């Protein structure tokens, strides 16, 4: 059987570094798009599109940081409540990454790669966190 706690902790550790890279690259790309590519897509007519992209990105940064902190604290102390909140925060985080991947004003090819890697990490974390919570909520067996 797979040690879900160890796999979950490794994935959180990897994602903590990847999230920093992802956040920096996405923010830089969005600033670049707002300066250079904006004229081509008529954002001056509807500036809320660009504001919505910035809002989703800021919300994703906050949710993902909270999710990683709760997951690390819960996994290291082997408590199931912070991990359950981390699992619940995975859903809006995945929706935010899907927004950046599909519904953004302009999606660059490099963003497809970044967002796909982020979705893969989040999906694996969701699976192993769910396994970890199930093993933590289950009573001890004295076989």
From TrEMBL:
<feature type="transmembrane region" description="Helical">
    <location>
        <begin position="82"/>
        <end position="106"/>
    </location>
</feature>
<protein>
    <submittedName>
        <fullName>Uncharacterized protein LOC113514384 isoform X1</fullName>
    </submittedName>
</protein>
<dbReference type="InterPro" id="IPR019184">
    <property type="entry name" value="Uncharacterised_TM-17"/>
</dbReference>
<keyword id="KW-0472">Membrane</keyword>
<feature type="transmembrane region" description="Helical">
    <location>
        <begin position="52"/>
        <end position="70"/>
    </location>
</feature>
<feature type="transmembrane region" description="Helical">
    <location>
        <begin position="12"/>
        <end position="32"/>
    </location>
</feature>
<dbReference type="GO" id="GO:0035869">
    <property type="term" value="C:ciliary transition zone"/>
</dbReference>
<dbReference type="GO" id="GO:0016020">
    <property type="term" value="C:membrane"/>
</dbReference>
<dbReference type="Pfam" id="PF09799">
    <property type="entry name" value="Transmemb_17"/>
</dbReference>
<keyword id="KW-0812">Transmembrane</keyword>
<dbReference type="GO" id="GO:1905515">
    <property type="term" value="P:non-motile cilium assembly"/>
</dbReference>
<keyword id="KW-1133">Transmembrane helix</keyword>
<feature type="transmembrane region" description="Helical">
    <location>
        <begin position="112"/>
        <end position="134"/>
    </location>
</feature>
């Amino acid at each position: 059987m797979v040690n879900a706690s160890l796999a979950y902790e490794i994935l959180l550790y990897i994602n903590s570094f990847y999230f920093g890279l992802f956040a920096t690259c996405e923010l830089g790309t969005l600033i670049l798009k707002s300066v250079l590519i904006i004229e081509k897509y008529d954002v001056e007519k509807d500036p809320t599109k660009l504001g919505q992209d910035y809002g989703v990105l800021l919300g994703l940064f906050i949710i993902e940081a909270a999710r990683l902190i709760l997951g690390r604290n819960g996994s290291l102390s082997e408590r199931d409540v912070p991990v359950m909140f981390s699992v619940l925060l995975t859903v809006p985080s995945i929706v935010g990454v899907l927004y950046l991947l599909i519904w953004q004003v302009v999606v660059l090819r490099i963003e497809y790669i970044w967002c796909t890697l982020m979705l893969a990490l989040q999906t694996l974390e969701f699976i192993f966190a769910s396994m970890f919570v199930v093993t933590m909520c289950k009573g001890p067996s004295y076989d």
